[in-house]
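Bumping my old thread because nobody answered last time. Still need a sequence for this structure:
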């Protein structure tokens, strides 16, 4: 920031500092999460889908596309890979034959239940330097930012 202030005193570079820190934090958090999941031979996106199915129950491919923020082609590929690994099933929705419902297999459910406790502990470790009040402030600020950027509150 100091260098920009010298080179371009007419600009306020403070947004660059905020966004740069968010980007760096995102990369470091993703690295910490990915390292944990690698111990279970999982990718971060695999746990995201499996975890969504565990907490929300069977989902359509369309719902998972929105939750994962990927294209329909990408979610199809991801579901194919999870079916091949034996973690999910794909069935035609009996109530809407044009829709496909994705659900956990018993093996997928067992895996999520095994992984999630350590996942929460890992996230606790990753946020360990923040006190409860700081976490609440950060969560509130990030929620406000996400809504302002057009994300759905959650």
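Sorry it took so long. Here it is:
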């Amino acid at each position: 920031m100091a260098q920009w202030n010298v080179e371009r005193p007419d600009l306020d570079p403070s947004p660059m500092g905020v966004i740069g820190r968010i980007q760096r934090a995102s990369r470091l958090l993703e690295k910490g999460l990915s390292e944990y999941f690698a111990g279970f031979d999982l990718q971060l996106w695999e746990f995201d889908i499996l975890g969504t199915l565990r907490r929300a129950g069977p989902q359509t491919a369309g719902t998972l596309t929105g939750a994962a923020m990927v294209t329909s082609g990408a979610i199809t590929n991801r579901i194919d890979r999870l079916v091949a690994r034996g973690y999910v099933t794909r069935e035609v929705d009996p109530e809407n034959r044009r829709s496909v419902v994705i659900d956990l297999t018993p093996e997928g459910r067992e895996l999520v239940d095994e992984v999630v406790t350590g996942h929460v502990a890992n996230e606790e470790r990753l946020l360990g330097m923040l006190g409860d009040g700081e976490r609440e402030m950060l969560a509130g600020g990030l929620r406000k930012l996400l809504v302002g950027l057009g994300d759905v509150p959650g």
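The two ends are 33 Å apart (CA to CA). Let me know if any region looks off to you.
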